[in-house]
Amino acid sequence: MCFGFMGIQFGFALQNANVSRVFQTLGADYNNMALLWVAAPITGLIVQPIIGYLSDNTWSRMGRRRPFFLYGAIAASLALFIMPNSPTLWVAAGMLWIMDASINVSMEPFRAFVGDMLPRKQRALGYAMQSFFIGVGAVVASALPWMMTNWMDISNTAAPGVIPDSVKYAFYAGGAVFFLAVLWTVLSTKEYSPEELASFNDAEPEQGGIEYVERSAGKYLRSGTIWLGVGLILAWLIDANIENLDKNLYLMAGGLACFGLAQLVAGWLASKGKNKNGYSQVMSDLFNMPEAMKKLAVVQFFSWFPLFAMWIYTTAAVTSHHYGSTDTSSALYNQGADWVGVLFAVYNGVSILAAILIPQMVKLTNLRLTHLFNLGLGGLGFISFVFIQDPRWLVVPMIGVGFAWASILSVPYAILSNALPVAKMGLFMGIFNFFIVIPQILAASILGFLVTKIFDGQPVFALVVGGVSMLIAGLMTLRVRIQEE
């Protein structure tokens, strides 16, 4: 059931460890790196709730979730083959958008799949098993360029503006593994029908529940007008260059304005009595989240901000701060970039061990304290990057990051799945993704400004900011009240 996630993580790990390298090779600088990366979270923001809603309401010969696994895997595998052959920076940015959309089509139903297939008392173990396979896939995928160079003697350098062969072949291998791993899950699992799921849900005691309150057209319109106005005012301030505001803040302004427009559309539909549709359902459920989900949303916000900082800036931080090179065609820079792949493999490898230990940690304490401890390890790991000089010792903080990563991928979903109705598992999992995406958009909006204007062009401090954010996330976990069994 979880094996396909190994393939999905092959795609994500190659993307996370190498896309900044691809962008820098094709001419991106620190200040526009975050802007290029923002395609990934925005894609998830749009795709995941749609796919969640559709998979909740789909039943075919292939089942409920599995068609989305397969079609997403086909598209993502093709994107992985094309990405390292991008001739220009903007082609690479476009391919990142397509690749991330395809990965999300496969990934979102996998979250709901575990909730569908397991009783509540087994879900913590089920999501930990997902983390295990994520770690297995990512540890290999992250180190693939290094392995290509050191084990197969494939060149890791190329002419300026050209992607090295080691990166190209790593992406080709990742595309094949992605498709085959997901295909295995599609062919080897059988889903429960909607009727069977309903009977299972009726047989289990309710935990939590949702107090559903219909949001009026007036509330949508008033709130939407405020959000839209704030977004437009911020955009005007940026355009007028008041206080030398960074242009990347347009992302934040656009996000605020779009949320306002989304509410205005929902309000208009409600005023016309046209609220019995998928769009209105997503908007309504967004404002009717269970209490545990609302508090977990804050935890997710502060947890994912540092992860996005890591994916964007680790290559630039390590190559400049620890290897002393920003020349993407130099051997020293590419040596550092390869080492980043190894570091990413380390944290993903540690997450395999952490995935095994987390269920035992939960038994000894509870879900909240387990998450607090693991996020604390990750936060301290990020902060330590600025103090470590020898790049070999960066392996140590990545151990803490590995425990945090495994916990982020499992514990919140174990808590959340027990607070959601089975009939809307996919939709609420998709909405929950908003609180993964929003901090990434914020990171894309402000990290470039912080690095260039506040930290004097030293990207290693983006990781320090991320570490502080992760420590806050750990403390916010204590606010979540759950029934644990």
Q: Give a short account of the largest sheet.
A: none
* SSE run: HHHHHHHHHHHHHHHHHHH
Give me the secondary-structure category.
Answer: mainly alpha
Count of all domains: 3
Count of alpha/pi helices:
19
Cα distance spanning the termini: 23 Å
Parts with pLDDT < 50 across at least 5 consecutive residues: none
Helix content: over 70%
Compute the average pLDDT: 85
Proportion in β-strands? under 5%
Q: The CATH topology of the largest domain, please?
A: Growth Hormone, Chain: A
Identify the CATH class of the largest domain.
Mainly Alpha
Shape: globular
Work out the oligomeric state of the chains in this entry. Answer: single chain
Rg over CA atoms, rounded to whole Å, is 22 Å
Q: Can you put this structure into words, describing what you see?
A:
The chain has 485 residues and is mostly helical. It has 3 domains: 1-192, MFS general substrate transporter like domains (Growth Hormone, Chain: A, Up-down Bundle); 217-274; 290-484, MFS general substrate transporter like domains (Growth Hormone, Chain: A, Up-down Bundle). Helix content is 75%, strand content 0%. The longest helix is centred in the C-terminal third of the chain and has 34 residues, at 331-364. The chain is globular. It starts with a helix and ends in an 8-residue tail after the last helix. It is a multi-pass membrane protein. Residues 1-193 form the Major facilitator superfamily (MFS) profile domain. The chain crosses the membrane at residues 34-55, 67-83, 89-107, 127-149, 169-187, 220-238, 250-270, 296-319, 339-358, 370-388, 394-415, 427-451, 457-478.
